[in-house]
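Check out a protein:
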Amino acid sequence: MSRRILVGLDHSEEALAGLRRAVGLAKVHRSQLTLVHVAVPPPAWVGVGLLAMPMVDDVVSTGCDLVRRAVEELPDELCVRWHLISGPEASGGLSRVRCVRRALACAMQRGDHDLLVLGTGTKPGRVSAGLLRLLGDDRVVTAPYEPAAEPVVLSGSPAMVASVSR
C-alpha cells in the first residue's frame, strides 16, 4: 500500500494518463499525491548572456502553470502537493532525459515517496525505463496512454465514417 505517491508531469497526453492512474491509486489507498514537473533549462548554447534568461524564466513559469492547472482539476478529497524542480536540480545531465530521470529519482528519495507514477506511450520510454531499472518494479508504476478512437463523419454522409486517433 502506497502512502505517498509522486507523479511526474510534462506537457503530454502520456503524463495525463499517469496522473489519472495515480489519482485512482490515491483514492483506493488514501494516499498523498505529489505532482512534480522538472523544468529543464535550455542548453547554454541556446542563448547568449542575458538573452538566455527569459528562456529559463519561460520554462519555469510554464512548468508552474502546468502543475497548478493539474492540481486545480483534481478531486477536492485528495491530499495533493506539488513541486517544481528547476535550477541546478533540473540540470546537470548531458540530455533532457537524463536530467529528468535524475531529478525524479532525487525527488523520490528526498520526499520519502513509496511510489512513482509515470505516463508512457505504448511501452516505457527512456525516462520511465531508466527509473524502472534504478528504483525497481515495486516503486515505479507506468500508465500507458492509449489514444481513443472516435468515429468521424468525413463528408456529411453517415456512410463515410473513419476512425481517428487524437
In short: The domain at 4-165 is CATH 3.40.50.620 (Rossmann fold). The two ends are 34 Å apart (CA to CA).
